[in-house]
Structures
1.
Amino acid sequence: MTDMTGKARLIERNGVLGPTIERPIPQPRAGELLLKIHATSLNFHDLVGIDGGIRGLPVPRVPCSDASATVLTVGDGITKFAVGDAVIPNFFLNWKSGPVARDVMSPVLGDQVDGALQTHLCLKAASVVRAPAGLNHDEIATLGCAALTAWRSVVVEAQVQPGQTVVLQGTGGVSLAALAFAKMLGARVILTSSSDEKLARAKQLGADVLINYRATPDWPAAVMAATGGEGAHLVVEVGGGETLAHAIKATRLGGHISVIGVLSGYQAASFPLAMVMSKNLTVRGITVGSAANLDAMCRAIELNGYRPVIDQVFDLDHAHEAVAAMKQQKHFGKIVIRIA
Ligand SMILES: NC(=O)c1ccc[n+]([C@@H]2O[C@H](COP(=O)([O-])OP(=O)(O)OC[C@H]3O[C@@H](n4cnc5c(N)ncnc54)[C@H](OP(=O)(O)O)[C@@H]3O)[C@@H](O)[C@H]2O)c1
């Protein structure tokens, strides 16, 4: 590799991640930063994108939205960042702050534009925030999508209070970040998993009540039993089709459900409409968050000493193995790909 070329892996066609190739390093225009990418982490969204499950995306393209990066070159007109600053790009490159709006939903890094599975990337300064101090690059690379989604659910939308109860499903990236944020706020966490071994690890991370959703398919009854018959203030719903009805049953009067994931499918097996109404539930769809949300989360992480849970680390040349490992769903926390 010469000084003028970087490395990248591209989706060559749907379902096929090509080998590592050399590419010219781009130069930043006015208002842009040239970033050196140190690491990315995989999200379910990346897997769907690589497999061609998101309509209308360009191919070939570089996938992945999460990144830990440092600033290599500062374009004209930027005063907020300097060479050497550690930064994180926001998932939605144009969503600076405020409520969701049509014009902030695109582009997504790694979808409509080349993403973070490469050594160098130019982005607008407004699309990145300062990374939290005290974390290494692997850890920083886990924050942009899964952790920000968890933050927006627990802190921004549901506004969980000390002593309230939060239900988390499984032990993937979203749920373990939500566990950390719920505990920061002094909440009680009920966590479900398919694995007793993973439940034991979640207990070490602070989960208060543990339910194996395979051994206890009626886990809403277990949530009711653990909350004196009241139910949870918030269910962070990542299961999708098979779990939404259960989430509605497990939530208390006036509670929140954050509809985030579709791990068991996009179609709800049933939707207890009368229960949503009679319990006065807020059922809130969430897609990641704004750069302002990301910045607030990073500052809170700095102050609270949160260290993300990393399951495995791969290098760029083995990124396809990282994708295969994520598909196996044996992981606990995040799968990271080191770029440089
Ligand atoms: N809306 C958004 O903005 C947004 C952002 C990030 C992620 N998501 C979505 O949220 C979901 C989770 O993402 P992630 O990154 O945390 O995924 P992940 O790291 O792959 O975690 C998946 C975990 O969820 C658990 N799980 C799988 N099927 C389940 C089911 N039927 N019921 C309950 N738990 C189940 C499993 O935990 P155990 O092995 O412990 O059972 C699995 O390890 C995905 O659908 C993803 O697309 C959405």
Note: The CA atoms of residues 7 and 196 lie 41 Å apart.
2.
Amino acid sequence: MGAPTFRTPEEKKAYVRRVFGSIAPWYDFFNTLLSFGTHKLWRRRFLRELRLTPGMRVLDLATGTGDLALAVARRLGPEGEVVGVDLSPEMLSIAREKVARLRESGRAPLARVEFREGEAERLPFPDAAFDGATIGFALRNVTDVPHVLREMRRVVRPGGFVASLELSHPYLWGFRQVYGVYFERVLPWIADRIAGRYEEYAWLPESLKRFIDAETLRRLFEEAGLERVRVIPLTFGVAAIHIGYRPEEPGE
Ligand SMILES: C[S@@+](CC[C@H](N)C(=O)[O-])C[C@H]1O[C@@H](n2cnc3c(N)ncnc32)[C@H](O)[C@@H]1O
């Protein structure tokens, strides 16, 4: 099975939709297994860096099974709101089940949470509709990163944040090589053995190979019109947080 080639953005979108549609029931399990739980630490750090305050309205783009959206919702209090958008109906249905289970169990006061099918490249929201926008482990998968960043900037209010948590390219020699073997060979093999999902989990290292490095992503944040951009490498650069802010408008 070779690496996929896409002649058009629509082909990539269809491929990505099929991949996530197929692994949706396995997604959370493999996230924890294959990252040895590290993704939870990264998410916690990401949430701290967002400096969320009760009552905010936040967009979680490419929300998937909703883990980031729900973690944000726990921090916004009953007056807050989170809207999760994703192009995979299968991933969204798992996210909705989680909300239903949380509400039934009466645990964790949640902000309002809504999940909607939609594309990162064409956000169905007016300008300045949110206090902030997040995207977790998904910029690799979109068809046009600069355009998606501009869309995220457009839908947050002046002063609001745009933030990404994404896999990146490890910088520590030695660690990089060992990690490369694990990520490219062992990880798809495990997914194949357990769930028969080789191709879908081979897309994970393949999509990272095609993805830009953390400094280039910083530049794209700036070129999208975001300011005070911060880059925080995680676990020797295995992942990175990028946060920027929509400039305040003159006279405010
Ligand atoms: C690796 S998952 C990340 C899910 C979630 N954000 C998380 O933190 O676990 C990537 C998600 O991005 C979604 N996605 C990929 N391309 C997209 C696009 N162009 N528009 C909207 N969602 C997209 C996929 O359907 C998938 O649910």
Note: The chain has a mean pLDDT of 93.
